[in-house]
Hints:
The protein contains seven helices and four strands. It is α+β, with helices and mostly antiparallel strands. 45% of the residues lie in helices and 14% in strands. It has two domains: 11-121; 132-242, TolA/TonB C-terminal domain, CATH 3.30.2420. The protein is globular.
Amino acid sequence: MHAQPFVLLGRQKARDRLDLGLAEYHELLQTFAAQLTRTLPMVALEQGDSDAPVSENLDRRLKELAESASLLGADKFVALYSKCTERGRPVRQQCPALLQVLQELERSLLASMQGVLNSKAVCAPLSPSEGERDIMVVKTPEMTLRISGTAGSNPYWARVQTIISNQWESPPIAMLGQPYTVTVKFRLQRDGAINDVVVQQSSGNAYFDLAGQRAVLRPQVLPAFPAEMNDAYKDLEMVFRIGVPVA
């Protein structure tokens, strides 16, 4: 009977295997999270029913991710990637399976990161430092939808913002000491399809950026444009802001 491949090797086992301290392991996780942040939206956008190969850019991203995943013991993704590349580049009809495994890996990665933070919290001071007192700690960020070429708002855009906002899940990052703002840009087609999701302006934290991208991607399809809107598409920006300085 064969053991099931790991989604992500346990924190202590990974540290023992790589002979890393907690800080070094945390840094490796952050690097891996940044790679995953860049790769997930591309896999989601390139999935399809054809046997056409994925873009060279995505192929390169997947290869880099697989190399890092092998270090962290993400055997399930590594095995699937190896199978998808037996005859060359992965093809678009393999992207749904890759996406599913990557989303599972994302959840495990966030849980592992939370464990690292909890370990650090044991030795953390009970009260915030003087600089940290200037930061308001909030679990749900302020979210703003920006629409190109449109002044003000209307019920349709308010609905779009609400749908995306409801997909937010707080990432496992320490909220004290630094505010975070990430701007996620995407194109919304007339039929509600979401395309070209990218981080327009990074928060400087891969986990926070990933949470913003995930909130935009999760609906998959948003409501179609109302009849009075004649545009074929709209370029939008969703801004997620947390830890606003207290006046």
